[in-house]
Amino acid sequence: MEKKNIDWSSLGFGYMETDMSFVATYRNGAWEEGKLVKEHTITMSECACVLQYAQTCFEGLKAYTTEDGKIVCFRPDLNASRMADSCRRLEMPVYPEDKFIEAVEAVVKANAAWVPPYGSGATLYIRPFMFGINSVIGVKPADEYQFRILVTPVGPYFKGGAKPITITVSDFDRAAPHGTGNIKAGLNYAMSLHPIMEAHRNGFAENMYLDPATRSKVEETGGANFMFITKDGKFVTPKSDSILPSITRRSLMIVAEKYLGLTVEHREVYFDELKDFAECGLCGTAAVISPVGKICYKGGEINFPSGMDEMGPVTKKLYETLTGIQQGHIEAPEGWIKVIE
Ligand SMILES: *Cc1c(COP(=O)(O)O)cnc(C)c1O
Fold it and tell me: Which residue CA neighbors atom 13 of ligand 1 most closely?
């Protein structure tokens, strides 16, 4: 199979059409057989439920090439089950989890020429998503849905090394205490666009959101969970029902405990504690870990001892171990690496 003629290392994080997308339609109360299609546009009613009432959710994962030339995905079963949770919360039909994994495999295989080669730092980003497509004007769930998977090659997240970022604490809230913060719904992103643009206009890379009920506890950013390292080397990550359960963060908890022998605390984290931590990072599929050097908020700033030049030492070990597992240099726990045959 011949790879596409792309300068993989200079790719950014943008969308580009590839050869095939996967589409399955839910109609008359059942999923029809899904298929690979060459068409990358969608025609729908102006009154489609997704357009009027934002009935849509999504997932994000990556396929990449390991040193021995295999194309693999990282824990796609967890994306399947998380999407099922998102669908149930939005009154959408669940696309069966085993079929989800088969569809990921099929669409990656069909676009194998678009999977960046080993060592390029680039990956094939996989975006499964679902939306209500039939017309709905009175507020209710749609009757017809499309489950689709698009793939697009994306460049290395950190060009020239992972530099610590400066973030701010948002005055806006991300998710209500019993709302939709724990599912991957498009609506959570719609409301985050204004706060993130405000943050960028003020010179910050990201927003830290606090719990809306008391505004005393750390939740997450718009698209990544937090992890902290204490001065005595413990791994701490916030627990809340309104945080999206990041697969990267859940994997790092296992890496921290089982591979690095760290004590792992998954608990409520108070903003007032942050000044005592040694290291801070954001975890998600895109970057794996983005180190945070500084947090600015009204009336002060927190400068982590790890500084603004490089990742803290424990964060770095976590990053190297998890990416080593993903790349096949370090033995993975059972079932973490899905080879696309
Ligand atoms: C997708 C997402 C994450 C990261 O999850 P991963 O599974 O690690 O990619 C974190 N927070 C939010 C709000 C997200 O949407």
Answer: 223
Q: What is the pLDDT along the chain (341 residues), one digit of tens a residue?
A: 789 999 998 999 999 999 999 999 999 999 999 999 999 999 999 999 999 999 999 999 999 999 999 999 999 999 999 999 999 999 999 999 999 999 999 999 999 999 999 999 899 999 999 999 999 999 999 999 999 999 999 998 877 678 999 999 999 999 999 999 999 999 999 999 999 999 999 999 999 999 999 999 999 999 999 999 999 999 999 999 999 999 999 999 999 999 999 999 999 999 999 999 999 999 999 999 999 999 999 989 999 999 999 999 999 999 999 999 999 999 999 999 999 98
Instruction: Judge whether 159 counts as a catalytic residue.
Output: no
Q: How much distance in Å is there from the Cα of 320 to the middle of ligand 1? A: 20
Decide if 186 is inside a domain.
yes
Residue 82, helix vs strand vs coil? helix
Q: How far is the CA of 243 from the centre of ligand 1 (A)?
A: 9
| 231 vs 185: CA distance, rounded Å | 36
**Do residues 121 and 212 share a domain?**
no
- Total domain count, the chain: 2
Closest listed residue to residue 271, CA positions, set 259, 261, 262, 280: 280
Q: Taking a C-beta distance cutoff of 8 angstroms, is the pair 309, 164 a contact?
A: yes
Q: Which residue has the tokens 């099922």?
A: 84
Give ligand 1 pocket residues (Cβ under 6 A).
60, 184, 220, 223-225, 244, 246-249, 283-285
Task: For residue 210, give the DSSP letter.
Answer: B
User: 44, 133 in Cβ contact below 8 A?
Assistant: yes
**Which of 246, 250, 252 to mutate for ligand 1's pocket (most ligand atoms within 8 Å of CB)?**
246
**Does residue 192 lie in a domain region?**
yes
Task: From the candidates 184, 217, 294, 338, give the one annotated as an active-site residue.
Answer: 184
Range of the domain at 184: 165-327
CATH number at residue 115: 3.30.470.10
For ligand 1, atom 2: residue with the closest CA: 223
